[in-house]
Amino acid sequence: VPMVAPGNVQVHVINSTLAKVHWDPVPLKTVRGHLQGYKVYYWKVQSLSRRSRRHVEKNILTFRGNKTFGMLPGLEPYSSYKLNVRVVNGKGEGPASPDKVFKTPEGVPSSPSFLKITNPTLDSLTLEWGSPAHPNGVLTSYILKFQPINNTHELGPLVEIRIPANESSLILKNLNYSTRYKFYFNAQTSVGSGSQITEEAVTIMDE
Question: Which Pfam families is this protein grouped with (predicted)?
Fold first, then answer.
């Protein structure tokens, strides 16, 4: 098997899900056989928004021939990763380069996990929601937009409310009685808004 590990391993983080890794080729005489390529082992150490450590799954990408760089796609935003590089010949892999740590920046969150509308009265509705399964960063706020729908399914004016990220419910007051409303709800990080969920609910007709 090869005798030495690739040197000068560098990681360039391109965005929250993509990084580029490059390394110096090993001297050909240390390959001790036919150079097949390089293998990059990389794995997530932890999510920076959640302190949970779970079973570490190692990803392996193989770059054929004498390439000295490669792309690592499909990374999780706002996470800490480690990687190392090994050279490969027909017999197997050489030693690993020292582990390199890199961090991905924040991304936009996934949609809130649910939006439930309860307790209709003449002029109010209660909203409850769950935080996104993948915050992909530090949540800064939730954005709620809503508008009335009339009997001919036309949409009325859109109202927008920004809600602090630590809230999980809200009572909307001063609504019109016996009116159907459409709600659009999403979470935000400093990078931007995540995907929204929509829901409809009706205030009651009379007491």
Answer: fn3 (PF00041)
